[in-house]
Amino acid sequence: MDYLSGWCKSGRRLEGMTAIVTGSNTGIGRETALDLYLRGCRVIMACRDTNKANVAKSEIETLHESTEGKGSLIVRKLDTSSLNSVREFASLVLAEEGKVEILVNNAGVMMAPRGISEDGFEMHMATNHFGHALLTLLLLPKLASCTHARVVFVSSIVHERAELDFGDMNYETTKYDPLTAYCRSKVANVLFARALSQKLRQDYNIANVSTYSLHPGVISTEIGRHFSDTYFPGTTWIFDNILSWFSKSPRCGAQTSIYCALDEKCADQSGLYYSDCAVKASSKYSQNYANAEELWNVTLTSLKISQDTLFSDLATDVTHL
Fold first, then answer.
1. DSSP 54
2. What is the pTM of this model?
3. Percent of the chain having pLDDT more than 90?
4. Active site members
5. Max CA distance (Å), the chain
6. Is residue 33 domain-resident?
7. Higher pLDDT, 95 or 307
8. How confident is the model at residue 320 (pLDDT cuts 50, 70, 90)?
């Protein structure tokens, strides 16, 4: 499928820049981190399993030992299903990093058995939405201090199948379905990217942080690891060994993430949805800003964040940019 897909063709170099890629020890996250690294970027590999992340880091560095112009790779612990882990990671970044120009919210779970996070959220929504939303909000001062920064949310075309039940985000009264849970978390990514863009630009006069959401394509990665537990034994094997013939490679699947993170063509865009390195129409539900606004309010309430204080210092500091 790779030859039918869109590829990022930008030759842009990223020396002197810092990027964070969540879930970057495998799959499209690893390929995204690799591409940024080869462009001279300092890449923070933010991963739940730091042992696997360090193995990936060593493999990349060994493979490209003689490559000129490469950047650097740094492994940091981040479990996006845990708000405490997100806060610890963000505190470290705020203390250690001078700036962060690129944040790729890539980590995720897909069609896992029903689970509740330590913070009381349904596991798909905890990992794929709430954790990344909190991370983005906590890092906004660092992002907005740059001349221009980008925040990329890796969503999926399956967001088109879902609408959010704001009164039952954690399946407390609705029968749990793993596919629906995953789809809901992915439409949340699209809606939050839209809401954040609107809030920054129209409410707080902050125009130097752009947001993007995207469908990477159907990709042969480890994200199907829960299928055999959720459906029936052997489902993961089928996904990995049969459906993979109709899937993109991880390198190809990372192209739209890379495009949104650095390509000059989309530098002035924000709040839009992409597929195959081009703007695409997201679902009608996700295009309704009232839904984005409601998710924004539910997210801040769930994270116990006050909108009144969220951007106060930030807006004062960056309106001159």
1. H
2. 0.91
3. 82
4. 182
5. 58
6. yes
7. 95
8. very low
Digit-coded pLDDT (tens) for 199-214:
999 988 999 999 999 9
Residue 202 carries which DSSP code? I
Quick check: is 244 in a domain?
A: no
Rounded Cα–Cα distance for residues 261 and 212 (Å): 8
Under 8 Å between Cβ of 113 and 65: no
Give the whole-angstrom CA distance, residue 193 versus residue 30.
22
Residue 169's SS3 state is coil
**Would you mind telling me the total number of residues written for the chain in this entry?**
321
On the question of pLDDT at 309 being above 80, the answer is no
Q: Residue 125: pLDDT above 70?
A: yes
Tokens standing for residue 4: 């039918």
The Cα–Cα gap between 259 and 276 comes to 9
Hey, which residues does 76 pair with through a beta bridge?
46
Q: Which two tokens stand for residue 222?
A: 């480890």
Q: Which residue has the tokens 């959220």?
A: 121
Q: Which domain holds residue 193?
A: 14-216+250-313
Q: Is 239 part of a structural domain of the chain?
A: no
Residue 221 lies in a domain: no
pLDDT in tens, 176-199: 999 999 999 999 999 999 999 999
**CATH code of residue 58:** 3.40.50.720
Q: Which amino acid is at 143?
A: L
CB 136 within 8 A of CB 102: no
Write the single-letter amino acid at 248.
K
Domain total for the chain? 1
| DSSP one-letter string for 110-162 | -SPPP-B-TTS-BHHIIIIIIHHHHHHHHHHHHHHTSSSEEEEEE--GGGGG-
**What b-and-e string marks burial along 132-156, b requiring 16 or more CB atoms within 10 Å of the CB?**
bbbbbbbbbebbbbbeebbbbbbbb
Q: Name the phi and psi angles at 133, rounded to 5.
A: -60, -45
**Residue 59 amino acid letter:** E
